[in-house]
């Protein structure tokens, strides 16, 4: 056999063996447990009702390591974690600041002086698992 034929045969054999042994038939892809959260306040940690005075609210993901911010949406803007001015662990804009540090999220709101209720939607991810946090700040 020529050197080219041997190399081609070896490459094809490697591809076939890799394909056969790299996947499981009963793989659990896409069947991730939902994110579980704890908070420093009562109620559903993913639904925060904040006072008009503002303040800092904490959420902690207990079953996934190092989740990060995918995006933060308020009525007038959406900011993605991959934008130049922001990053996956810290998004700050106008009246809010969202920080992901380890497994804990710190959501800081400035006082609401608009006379209207404000809404903030935070999309978080830990790879193949996603979750959504909603913050309503009273007027």
CATH architecture: Sandwich
- In spatial order, strands of the major sheet run 1-3-8-7-6
Largest sheet: 5 strands, antiparallel
- The shape, in one word, is elongated
Distance linking N and C termini: 81 Å
What is the top-level CATH class?
A: Mainly Beta
Q: What is the ordering of alpha helices and beta strands?
A: HEEEEEEEEEE
Mean pLDDT, to the nearest integer, reads 88
Question: How many extended strands?
Answer: 10
How many structural domains does the protein architecture include?
1
Q: What's the helical proportion of residues? A: 10-25%
How is the CATH topology named?
Immunoglobulin-like
Strand residue percentage: 35-45%
Short description:
This protein is mainly β and 139 residues long. The mean pLDDT is 88. Helices cover 14% and strands 41% of the residues.
What does this structure look like?
The chain is mostly beta strands and 139 residues long. The protein has a single domain (37-137), classed as Immunoglobulin-like. The chain is 14% helix and 41% strand. It is built from one helix and ten strands, in the order αββββββββββ. The chain has one helix at residues 3-22; strands at residues 37-39, 47-50, 55-61, 68-74, 77-80, 90-93, 96-101, 104-109, 118-125, 130-137. The strands form two sheets. A five-stranded antiparallel sheet has the order 1-3-8-7-6, with no helix packed on it. Strands 2-10-9-4-5 form a five-stranded mixed sheet, with no helix packed on it.
């Amino acid at each position: 056999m020529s050197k080219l034929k041997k190399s081609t045969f070896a490459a094809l054999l490697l591809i076939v063996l890799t394909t056969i042994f790299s996947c499981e038939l009963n793989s659990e892809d896409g069947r991730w447990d939902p994110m579980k959260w704890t908070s420093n306040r009562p109620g559903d940690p993913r639904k925060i009702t904040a006072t008009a005075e503002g303040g800092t609210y904490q959420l902690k993901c207990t079953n996934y390591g190092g989740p990060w911010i995918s995006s933060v949406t308020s009525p007038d803007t959406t900011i993605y974690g991959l934008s130049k001015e922001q990053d996956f662990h810290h998004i700050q804009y106008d009246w809010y600041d969202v920080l992901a540090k380890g497994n804990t999220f710190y959501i800081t709101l400035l006082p609401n002086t608009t006379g209207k209720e404000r809404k903030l939607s935070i999309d978080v991810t830990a790879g193949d698992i996603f979750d959504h946090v909603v913050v309503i700040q009273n007027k």
